[in-house]
Design goal:
The chain is α+β, with helices and mostly antiparallel strands and 216 residues long. The protein contains 6 helices and 7 strands, in the order H-E-E-H-E-E-E-E-E-H-H-H-H. The chain has a 5-stranded mixed beta barrel with strand order 1-3-5-6-7. Strand 5 and strand 6 form a beta hairpin.
């Protein structure tokens, strides 16, 4: 094993969460109440404040092999040693093996990242952003609510792809697939397909709503 590969592999505590997929740069609020995870968090707070989040697919009863490291940014202790905390996604990782399972899971992991793109992806990112704006605009019209995108929407293609993936609704397996991709272009392409389908569906519903309003 080379020196660089040794650096890229380490043991970290692991926190399996039902249908939750964490992405780099994205926040994840948590309420820690289960005894073994209270132990885990107390241990983490005394060290580097980092742990791994893995998605549990409740439909299949499986735990993902690729997850995202979370760093505790803020925590608040409640009664009975429960905690509320805000964490932030850091590096992605792949579990190589489980070192132990009690009192909580600890795994030997290797860090992973996207490969360097072979071309400028700003056009693809711009297309995804425009589709996102179309979806938000149509959603606002359908629900008659004021829905807006944040002002600080990521400008860099990889970070934008993480933002979009983390904000997909009730599709944890799809999010997990996007998390596991190590090709920014492929992730943006998949998000283009998802957002195009969503936009077309919303546009059709908007036309139907407008037609019904005109005839009523």
């Amino acid at each position: 094993m080379t020196s660089s590969s040794r650096i890229a592999v380490r043991e970290i505590p692991l926190f399996p969460l039902p249908d939750v997929v964490l992405f780099p740069t994205r926040p994840l609020p948590l309420h820690i109440f289960e005894f073994r995870y209270r132990i885990m968090m107390n241990t983490i707070l005394d060290s580097d404040r980092r742990f791994g989040v893995l998605m549990v697919d409740q439909a299949k009863g499986t735990v993902a092999n690729v997850g995202c490291c979370a760093e505790i940014i803020h925590h608040q202790r409640l009664k009975d040693d429960r905690m509320k905390m805000l964490t932030l996604g850091q590096q992605r990782f792949r579990v190589l093996e489980y070192v132990r399972e009690k009192p909580y899971f600890v795994g030997l992991v290797e860090w992973i990242d996207d490969e360097e793109p072979t071309k400028d992806l700003r056009h693809e990112a711009s297309e995804v952003e425009q589709l996102l704006r179309d979806v938000v605009r149509l959603s606002a019209k359908l629900t008659e609510q004021n829905i807006e995108l944040p002002q600080d929407l990521p400008a860099l293609p990889k970070e934008l792809s993480y933002w979009v993936a983390s904000n997909l609704y009730r599709v944890a397996p799809e999010q997990q697939s996007l998390l596991e991709m190590q090709d920014t272009a492929a992730r943006l392409q998949r998000e283009t397909e998802i957002l195009t389908s969503t936009r077309n569906h919303l546009a059709a519903r908007t036309v139907l709503k407008d037609t019904l309003n005109q005839t009523s």
